[in-house]
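Dock cobalt (II) ion; give full complex structure.
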Amino acid sequence: MTQIAPSILSADFMNLQRDVQNLEAAGADLLHIDIMDGMFVPNMSFGAQVVSGIRPLTQLGLDVHLMVEQPERYIEQFITAGSDLIMIHAEATEHLYRGLQMIKDAGVKAGVVINPGTPVSYIESVLPLVDQVLVMTVNPGFGGQKFIPAMLTKVAELAAYREAHADADFTIEVDGGVNDQTIAACAKAGADVFVAGSYTFAGDLATRIETLKKAANEAR
Ligand SMILES: O=C(CO)[C@@H](O)[C@H](O)COP(=O)(O)O
Ligand SMILES: [Co+2]
């Protein structure tokens, strides 16, 4: 099933409540929330307080993308803040399995993320544990970058893995440079959840979300 997850990184932070509520009214399926620590990625965004602030404003699931060194240090904060799904980067911790278990043990969905330079084989041993795999289709750290088409082979590889393994029960998400031109190829390769920040906010929200959904559904 297609799910569109606008990234609030492209929202107007001085009007975040308005933008979150407008996204829900416009038909967003999830809210993608990018947390950047200035270490794992060369940019900073915001912390768990903002997630706590958003939580009571919307019924949408909060899809939290931690771009943070040693994310296990912050998992509890993001659970308490009301995240529905917490994703940690495979490259950011020596204890990937433990970090994912911490999230799952709290009854929250857990996701693993891979950077453009990381192969699917690197995360194979955690695939039976996760609820979502996020394939970065740009280098993490900034919105508004150009989609890297070579990442689609990883999406297809994950879709084939899921098909072949009865114990695999994860959605495949793509993040970075997703727009009306790139979403069809992602859907064709097997992606289910599509993060779109700059594209969604560059026009009428409802029209843009609808355009993305239609393109993804037609490509399947
Ligand atoms: O995680 C990230 C960037 O690191 C993303 O979620 C971006 O915020 C998506 O932005 P667009 O590429 O859609 O503008
Ligand atoms: Co993201």
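Observed: The mean pLDDT is 98.
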